[in-house]
Write a structure and sequence with these properties.
Elements lengths: L6 E7 L6 H6 L8 E6 L6 H8 L2 E5 L5 H14 L4 E4 L11 H9 L5 E5 L13 H18 L11 E4 H6 L11 H11 L4 E5 L13 H22 L20 E4 L1
Parallel strand pairs: 1-2, 1-4, 2-3, 5-7
Antiparallel strand pairs: 3-8, 4-6, 5-6
């Protein structure tokens, strides 16, 4: 806990056997109260390793996608009465050592959401980020800041911390089950006026870490632009999209189970 707030870390996993233990060992368990892992029907031994490490684990009944994985993560985090929820990828690209700093900014009511930015410190390329991904990141972020009226250093980080209030009120279940979920969620956060902070986060790109291929990156980029258009149309009252509608408490069940 920090300032009396229960801190829960969620790990959205898919074929993370090679990097899960490294990631878990860096989680500051002196302040983190609980760790949950959601496995999106991995083909490797991610689930058995998570059980061996003592991580509370949930398994999808098939591979649904990154966005659905996060939906399960946040649904279970709320069910476990967390006050602050930190999402970090178990592929060891982001260091969990920043959890304390990110959670503290929320625990002391400085921000509602905190992002671990790979761009602020200028080390993304040094950490191995492919040049084409770096260029695409900067290009898309510039467009998003322009259309969403924000000033974030990047929209595409997989390292995020949320207050319970944010997850209780965001209609994230209406978002995509694909990678564009991340972007839709930030658009929702900006639309509903929550305070966003950023911390500089080093990143690592290596063979065992998960990575999106060029084709999926293009599809994701188009999804990002589509989200920006939806946001703009919603703000101008030209359309009414479910992802920007008040949350109605929709809970999806039956597609995953707790692994004992």
């Amino acid at each position: 806990m920090i300032n009396g707030k229960k801190i829960l870390v969620v790990l959205p996993a898919y074929n993370a056997e090679e990097t899960l233990e490294q990631t878990y060992r860096e989680i500051p368990l002196d302040i983190v109260d609980e760790v949950l892992l959601v496995d999106d029907y991995s083909a490797d031994s991610t689930v058995s390793l998570a059980k061996r490490l003592g991580i509370k684990t949930f398994l999808h009944d098939r591979n649904y996608g990154y966005g659905r994985n996060q939906k399960t993560c946040y649904q279970e985090a709320l069910r476990h009465k967390a006050d602050i929820i930190v999402m970090v990828h178990p592929d060891y690209q982001y260091t969990p050592k920043l959890i304390t700093a990110m959670a503290s900014m929320i625990a002391f009511d400085v921000y509602d959401v905190v992002l671990g930015s790979r761009i602020i410190g200028g080390g993304a390329l040094k950490g191995g980020m492919p040049v084409y991904k770096y260029i695409a990141n900067r290009f898309l972020t510039a467009i998003e800041n322009l259309l969403l009226g924000s000033k974030l250093s990047e929209f595409h980080t997989g390292y995020r911390a949320f207050s319970r209030r944010v997850l209780e009120n965001l209609p994230f279940q209406a978002n995509s089950d694909t990678f564009v979920f991340d972007n839709e969620m930030l658009a929702q956060i900006i639309y509903f006026g929550y305070r966003i902070g950023e911390v500089s986060c080093p990143t690592r790109y290596f063979e065992e870490a998960s990575s999106v291929n060029l084709t999926d990156s293009i599809v994701y980029g188009l999804g990002v632009l589509r989200t920006c258009i939806k946001y703009t149309a919603q703000k101008l009252t030209l359309a009414n999209y479910k992802i920007f509608a008040p949350k109605k408490g929709i809970i999806h069940k039956g597609y995953y189970q707790r692994i004992e």
